[in-house]
Amino acid sequence: MEFRKETLSNGLDVVGEINNSAKSAAVGFFVKTGSRDESSGINGVSHFLEHMLFKGNDRLNAFEVNEAFDRTGAQFNAFTSEENTVFYAAVLPEYLVEVTQLWIELMNPALRDEDFSLEKNVIKEEIAMYKDLPSFDVMEKCRSLHFDGHPCGNSVLGSEDSISDLTAAQMHNYLTSRYAPNNMVLACAGNLDWDKICSVAKKFCSRWPRQVGATRALEDCRGSKKKERIEKANLACEHICLMSAGVSAQDPRRFAASLLATIIGDDVGSRFFWELVDKALAETATMQFGAMDGTGTFYSYICCRSENVTKVLDAVSSIFHSLSQSGITEDELRKAKNKILSALVIKNELPMGRLADLGSNWIYLEQYRTIEDDINAVKAVTVDDIGSLIKQFSPGDFTQFSIGPP
Amino acid sequence: MTEKFDKHILKNGMVLLGEPMDGVQSAAFGFMLPAGAALLPEGCCGAANVIADWVFRGAGDRNNRQLNDALDGLGLHRASSVGSSHIIIGAVLEASNLSQALDLYADVILKPTLDEEQFGLTRQLAIDGVQALDDDPRHKVMLKLREFFYPPPLGRSTAGEIAQLKTLPANKTRQIVKNNFNLSQTIFMVASKYNFDEICRRMENLFGMPPRKSGEPVTVGPKVGKYTHIHNEGAQVHIGLMTETVKPTDQDYYNARVAVSVLSGGMSARLFTEVREKRGLCYAIGAHYHALKESAGIMCYAGTTPEKGQETLDVIIQEFDRLSEAITEEEIQRAKVGLKSALILQSESSSSRAGAIGSDYYMLGRVRSLDEIKSQIEQTTVESVLTFLRNNKFKEFTVVTIGPKEVTVK
Predict the structure, then answer these.
(1) A140 to chain B: which residues are within 8 Å by CB?
(2) Are the beta carbons of A70 and B267 separated by less than 8 Å?
(3) Domains (ranges, CATH) in chain A?
(4) What torsion, rounded to 10 degrees, do the Cα atoms B261, B265, B266, B270 define?
(5) Least enclosed by CB within 10 Å: which of A151, A251, A307, A308?
(6) pTM
(7) Which of B268, B285, B330 to substitute to test the interface with A, most A CBs within 10 Å?
(8) Complex ipTM value
(9) Which domain holds residue B145?
């Protein structure tokens, strides 16, 4: 695998990892913008704008955009998080240039009024869809409670009201300031012709104006540690989310944090698994580590029967108590490493998996990391590293949000 | 893109399939055990789900904890699933750990402890799993759709029925494992950079027991219900809709696949265009081909707020009906490129390949090469797809809705 990089005069970084033995290639724009970059009057604009990009530019309407992608057989999509908006496609190598050119065009959307009002309905349907998914709903509400006023607690989807009130002019302003070449990266991975991709990027992206205001206030957040519960009459189970502070995406301890989350809450073989799922106290109990820009979280999701809630929370508290008293064992660390290392290998076999890591490493670190770099970083973590992480972050001291039946 | 497949049949009839993959460090494997939901005795709906968990709670000389620690020690990512015909247990892991994993899986399949106390826990988890489905209407509606579309017991819920799970006894479940884990009807598949001879020798050592008679074929009953509504005070009406089409063994199979792709292959396909892009009725809308060995259909999902439920359903059915009227050359080209590209993209993943060769062998009795599939897709034309659609009009739609408001199925 060979890494290549080119920076255009307006600050757009183009990065690529070439693997000529791959059968496919992947390309994506990683824009450093999401709900945490929204002011309260425009909540939901990042995600709505992601939808609007598919509605076309001055040359193509929405139907033509969809047809242009489908003609290449691309598997393409986009997603918006609290801090990134990512547009990606996996294609056969012969279509990579065409798809890259298409994404480049779409970065300057027309934002037509009629598309804007029609798409509002689709966004509202998406909001409604997630309301019917308590596993998602509880996470979002817990995040907002945990960050308690910190912008990382902003909802990605926005609310029915914030979407209704949003105007195309507000979206246009947001687009101009955030979709700046110096606030995004164009990444590609797999079987690709670097020179061709690069010349397409130079030809079409060089005239995009650099912006000075595309910055982000970084402030760490230790979390509110509040506890709340709401009732919903149509639910059958109790859905619980726990959230506590963790290290940031830039912190070298992020590998230790991932291992810790695996030890506590992997879907099999973890402490949560043995104490909650294996004993049939909870149907699901998992923990993950979410590295973010300048901050981070450990978040757990538990689904159980209403009558088990007390037992479950007691078990959770005793898991965290024992962690803070005795830390983890060498054997737990060894198993967690094996799981994470094999997941790394499996994910990185696909150009699409490589693209995700390549793009996010560039967004957060402006650094190219090989798979081996990550493998070595995981291997180097010690029991003591995890011990000091537990000590510093006390994952048992969490914010808690629950949704369940009355 | 010329690939080869490996195949070896043990003396007892167990089929070993392999797809060698050069560029990967991972290995994916699976055992297709003839113990799927449709093959269970009456009154045991959900037992397959219990079994898929119970067999991992101790096997050979390892107890629950030791077995799971051993599996975790190999860093393997487990993938168990219950379908209509099979329980599939398998995993993906680093190729160098494959042999050790096979030793452990041989214990799981041949020597599960099936301990009484563990049974209580696994049954409770299965019951909780069914209950949790009530809080995931989008998933539940598709399970219910299969149940009402396929004639019983083919569509029987793979999650289970709470009432039947509550009364399911351990000894009866043990008997199902004994009867249905029949190696003579089991398919093993693996995709990786491997030495197939070595795998065959190991598998012969592990699984080389005497052959057994095959189980009774499934007797299929009459189809139930055209429209079913399940009331739930949620935010959306979740609509599942299914209509019959040809099976994978049919000569028109590829015409059917291309037709489904015209309907819902990409974002320029008919359903996305008409339901979401032109009318803004839904966020999630899509249809796909779904097949069992005995029967096949086109399965469609849409989720929308209650007041738009009826219009959404009407537009979807209209698009199904309109499909046989005309299809443009452009649409067929996009559908074909989409199908071929998906095929090649999936071929890079060892777990996709292992799944595909197992399913091909079960459905068709042989494994199709990517070249064969590509060329069959290539041969379809506007005319062949339209002729197929006109000769196989969508007659009846099975519809299930979950939500605050019913729809009317005309």
Answers:
(1) none
(2) yes
(3) 2-205 (3.30.830.10), 227-404 (3.30.830.10)
(4) 60
(5) A307
(6) 0.96
(7) B268
(8) 0.95
(9) 6-207
